[in-house]
Amino acid sequence: MIFKCAASFLFFGVLFLLGCSLEKTISAASVCDKIVAAGIGKNCTRDKPMALGARARNKYNFDLTGVPGKGGAVFDFSTQEDYNATVNAFAEVAFLAGPHRYGNSKTKIFVQMNSGASLNDGDLVKNIVEK
Q1: Residue 118: inside a domain, yes or no?
Q2: What are 106-130's pLDDT values in tens digits?
Q3: Cα 81 to Cα 51: distance, rounded to the nearest angstrom
Q4: pTM to 2 decimal places
Q5: Among 81, 80, 67, 77, which residue's Cα sits nearest to residue 116?
């Protein structure tokens, strides 16, 4: 009986670990794709991280569907230090960067959108980033 329980435990433990290793990595690209799928953005394109987002590992720009000619950017980071520094940099220039700044320190994803975006679009992006 003990061996059956141990074997079952080992089997389910391996399945759990396998499931965890197959979990899709959250990245700037995957978040940008979710923003497009939600109908908020279009035309995700990879860009070189610069200026306030220079510490990002990756940056993807997108056009806002509800605000022609305006867009946003999704950043992902390798380290917590780089993520925090970028969030703080955007907070310091909030009057220029606008209210649409959404981050998740666990996944190290940060999204900034043009201030012309609607509050509803902002809430949808916030939900995407927080998952």
Answers
A1: yes
A2: 999 999 999 999 999 999 999 999 9
A3: 16
A4: 0.80
A5: 67
CA dist 20 and 91 (Å) reads 34
What lies within 8 Å, CB to CB, of 104 at 6+ separation is 110, 129, 130
**Residue 18 resides in a domain:** no
CA angle 40, 124, 56 (to 5 degrees): 80
In this model, does residue 37 exceed pLDDT 70? yes
d(Cα 90, Cα 41) in Å, to the nearest integer? 21
Q: Which domain holds residue 34?
A: 24-130
What's the number of CA atoms in the CB half-sphere (13 Å) around residue 126?
Answer: 10
Based on the structure, what is the number of domains in the chain?
1
Helix (H, G, I), strand (E, B) or coil at 50: coil
